[in-house]
Design brief:
This protein has three domains: about 1-145, Copper amine oxidase-like, N-terminal domain (Copper Amine Oxidase, Chain A, domain 1), CATH 3.30.457.10; about 160-250, no CATH class; about 255-365, no CATH class. The protein has four helices and 30 strands. The protein has helices at about 1-15, 25-30, 120-125, 255-260, and strands spanning about 35, 40, 50, 55, 70, 75-80, 85-90, 95-100, 100-105, 110, 115-120, 130-135, 140-145, 160, 165-170, 175, 180-185, 190-200, 205-210, 220-230, 230-240, 245-250, 260-270, 270-280, 285-290, 305-315, 315-325, 330-340, 350-355, 365. A hairpin with a 2-residue loop joins strand 26 and strand 27.
Length: about 375
């Protein structure tokens, strides 16, 4: 079956071939260097220019894209297999078989000294990558696309801590739409962690460098966004001691807040009444009245906490802001949670929580005299 596919592809694109192309000596003398995502390519092969086009070795795909290369020396066909289909390239032809369809490249594929080369512009079709030719530096740079992977440590950080430029975070491995692992750099030292998050350029990691556990040494606070949507923001937090690269234990904000907040939703004539009792170092009772909502389905239940969560560091304290919801993710206010270090210093725990009212839902807040 594979032979039949290969033979068919050869028949399709062989008509455009006359002979295997060679490089003009003029271009061979001007050797270009190749970089991928800011780092020198692993392949020792060099790109070159011919007929006004930039050519790169096909094998560079394997450095930033989940590609395997299969060469049929008898049919002179290069196959890049995929789970659903295959890409087939014939040296000497500008036509390729791509996901069952014939596509044209800017120029002919080239076989040179046993290695296959394609126009650099073809990388975008095959992997979503772009390229840039810097004539001044004699360099061809490949910028991997949104469905790429990389096997190298990236040169550019995703984020740096405000006022602390030596505290940075990098993506360790990109797998299609996911960052598989991160590299944390603190004052020139690096360590890799297996944290996984979606690749969302609109929500890059956030970094803080502060002594949140009050042991006299600053920690690196890493905030990663796991997902966003209508009425939903989910973040993940990591607190790392850079001298040992150990993580502090941090309970998720909604779980920590739930330790200090109890709630009820009851009917009062035609209105829904939401009651919150806040414990901790700032105890209070909060009452919200929603007119003409007594028939809501969740009467008798509890308010939701934390479908939207944002972590941050304020004045050296780890804090989180969470929403309070009723109904279908309808926010009626918020909570500000402040963490404190545990006695061991290797964990964080909830210390206080305060209610944050919103204009649409006026609240009555009564401070409690006792700390439950």
């Amino acid at each position: 079956m594979k032979r039949w596919i290969a033979a068919s592809a050869a028949a399709i694109i062989l008509a455009a071939c006359t002979a295997v192309t060679t490089i003009d000596k003029t271009f061979a003398a001007a050797q270009l260097t190749l970089t991928v995502d800011g780092e020198a390519a692993l392949s020792p092969l060099h790109p070159f220019q011919k007929d006004g086009l930039v050519y790169v070795p096909v094998r560079v795909l394997t450095e930033f894209y989940p590609a395997r290369l299969q060469w049929d020396n008898k049919l002179k066909l290069l196959t890049i297999p995929d789970d659903s289909s295959s890409t087939i390239i014939k040296p000497g032809s500008e036509l390729i078989l791509y996901y069952g369809n014939t596509s044209a490249l800017e120029g002919k594929a080239i076989l040179l000294k046993g290695h296959n080369y394609i126009p650099a512009s073809s990388l975008n079709l095959l992997s979503g990558a772009d390229f840039r030719l810097d004539q001044g530096k004699n360099t061809v740079s490949i910028i991997s696309g949104s469905v790429s992977t990389t096997v190298r440590k990236p040169a550019e950080a995703l984020a740096a801590a405000e006022d602390h430029p030596k505290v940075k975070i990098y993506a360790a491995l990109k797998d299609q739409t996911t960052y598989k692992g991160y590299i944390l750099e603190v004052n020139g030292k690096k360590h890799q962690f297996d944290w996984e998050t979606p690749r969302d350029p609109n929500h890059p990691p956030e970094l803080y460098y502060a002594d949140v556990n009050k042991d006299g040494q600053p920690e690196t606070v890493v905030i990663l966004t796991l997902g966003t949507g209508t009425g939903i923001v989910e973040q993940e937090i990591h607190i790392v001691k850079p001298e040992t690269w150990k993580e502090l234990t941090v309970p998720e904000a909604w779980k920590a807040a739930s330790q200090l907040v109890s709630s009820s939703m009851t009917a009062d004539h035609n209105d829904m009444v939401i009651s919150l009792k806040l414990k901790g170092t700032s105890p209070a009772e909060v009452t919200l009245r929603l007119p003409d909502r007594a028939e809501d389905w969740n009467i008798g239940g509890k308010a939701g906490i934390g479908t939207v969560t944002y972590y941050s560091v304020e004045s050296g304290r780890l804090v989180a802001e969470l929403n309070v919801t009723t109904g279908f993710l309808e926010s009626v206010g918020g909570l500000k949670l402040v963490y404190k270090p545990s006695d061991s210093g290797m964990a964080m725990e909830p210390e206080s929580v305060t209610f944050l009212p919103v204009r649409e839902y006026p609240a009555t807040i009564k401070e409690s005299g006792a700390n439950d």
